Amino acid sequence: MIYDAVARDHGLPHDPFKALVAPRPIGWISSLNERGEVNLAPYSFFNAFSTYPAIVGFSSEGQKDSVAFIAETGEFVCNIATYPLRDAMNATSAPLPRGVSEFEAAGLVPEPSRFVKPPRVRGIAAALECRRLQIIRLEDMDGRALDRWLVLGQVVGIYIDDRYLRDGLVDTAAMQPIARLGYHDYSVVDEVFSLVRPKGGE
């Protein structure tokens, strides 16, 4: 099949877009506002965009607390969501009133970060401590401003649980990071394979 993605005339019971752009890593974003209130929310529109400097970003559909808090204080943490914490991660996606702690609601404990003020999730396999670079309001092809916000941050500190370091490398399969698919579906990385890039011409 082929369909008009603007008109969304696919004729299917659910939009297949997210199921096609998959799997998507989940950035479990913790942030802090000026009053010291902590927010924790998962974002599947998340990825890395630069190696050095290390830059990551996530996109929010709506100007949610994560975006507002990061705009206020300029810092956030990307906790890498993993299979053992899948239910807690899902619980933090609930729409709670501002000021209500997702950490507490999901039975999680905040752990102090080293380089930024927002905490990471205790027991997480890895976390990226970030300082805000840009918050970009997205536009469509007609130049209309959307209620879609891209947050870019430079990674200033990286936490890795030592259990997942093997012979100087991160054992990604042992970490079991989870990823978002379409609909209500997720995936877990529990098996890896290697490919060596071909060398370029002389």
UniProtKB/TrEMBL annotation:
Residues 19-166 form the Flavin reductase like domain. It holds the Pfam family Flavin_Reduct. It comes from the Bacteria. GO terms for molecular function: FMN binding; oxidoreductase activity, acting on the CH-NH group of donors, NAD or NADP as acceptor. InterPro entries: Flavin_Rdtase-like_dom, Split_barrel_FMN-bd. This is Flavin reductase. It comes from Chelatococcus daeguensis.
